[in-house]
Design brief:
The chain is of the alpha/beta class and 313 residues long. It has 13 helices and seven strands.
């Protein structure tokens, strides 16, 4: 894979809200093509350091090439962000800032062999980590109708989720689903005419999320990542899917002194909880400005939330 043009979303907001110590140690848990990583490294002093993780080895290789001028100040590891506490150098209470840019990279969508997009007649793969055991083909040909219906309902907000799942189960009973085209062909007539592409993209997103265990990984990772932060360190998460954003918002609310409750109720709650670990930096999700969306349509659905770790009491 060659180095590709890549526009990191919410670039100035990430630097302003997450990089608070130019000589600190930072983690980019979803390095991708290295766009945000390059911004962070440019902001850091010679003493600053960045550790980059990504599940996709292909993306990580591109990032290493892109960031070769920062050699000695950046380390790369093929790992998921929910495994960060197993990475050398990521010790509890030592990290000044952590960034997660969730979802899928445009380069992955444009790879005609990975099966992430309906634009290509590709094998049903959809794995971020090519060493993972379960492909989208395995998943769709073995998942129960009930579980598949729940995935379409919860991850895609499909009202006809039961009908979609039933159609997939019936089709695979006739012949195994092997390609993206096989999958799409068995359900596309259930989508409104004129909006087939939009609904198909959302359907593939549902399967991708399930195959890569994305939401469960996020739930496992958030408390662990906070443990890596030093007091005053910041965690920033960019999400593109409502389920991701809800999870991040809920976690920050539950871990923050700012509960989001009305003041009169907050007064009554004082002293009821002693495990508050975060302070919300962004009371509402930060969204891309109109000019950024014009330059980079992917930024339209981006939502950034940032929280700061409280000092030990």
């Amino acid at each position: 894979m060659t180095e590709l043009d890549h526009i990191p979303v919410l670039a100035s907001e990430v630097i302003e809200l997450i990089v608070t110590d130019r000589s600190g140690r930072y983690l980019d848990g979803t390095c991708g093509l290295g766009g945000h990583a390059a911004l962070i490294l440019n902001e850091l002093s010679e003493d600053g350091r960045l550790i980059c993780l990504d599940r996709d080895v292909n993306m990580l290789q591109v990032a290493e090439n892109r960031l070769r001028d920062f050699s000695g100040r950046v380390d790369f590891h093929s790992a998921s962000y929910d495994e960060a506490d197993t990475i050398p150098g990521l010790d509890p209470g030592t990290i000044a800032g952590i960034l997660l840019d969730l979802g899928i990279c445009s380069a992955q969508l444009d790879d005609d062999s990975r099966g992430f997009s309906f634009r290509f007649e590709a094998p049903l793969d959809m794995r971020f980590d090519q060493n993972s055991a379960t492909t989208a083909r395995d998943y769709l040909n073995n998942v129960s109708q009930e579980d598949l219906s729940a995935v379409f309902r919860d991850y895609g907000d499909f009202r006809n989720h039961k009908q979609l799942a039933a159609r997939v189960i019936r089709r695979r009973g006739e012949c195994p689903l092997l390609t993206v085209g096989d999958f799409v062909a068995c359900v596309e007539d259930l989508f409104p005419k004129g909006r087939i592409n939009k609904y198909t993209a959302r359907l593939l997103q549902c399967v991708r999320i399930a195959v890569n265990d994305e939401l469960q990984r996020l739930d496992r990772a958030l408390p662990m990542l906070v443990g890596l932060l030093r007091p005053g360190g910041r965690l920033g998460v960019i999400s593109y899917h409502s389920q991701e954003d809800r999870r991040v918002k809920r976690f920050i609310r539950q871990s923050s002194r700012d509960s989001g409750l009305p003041p009169e109720i907050e007064v009554c709650m004082k002293g009821k909880s002693t495990d508050r670990t975060l302070s919300s930096v962004t009371r509402k999700a930060v969204k891309a400005a109109a000019d950024e969306v014009r330059r980079n349509p992917r930024a339209r659905s981006a939502r950034l939330r940032v929280a700061e770790k409280l000092s030990a009491t």
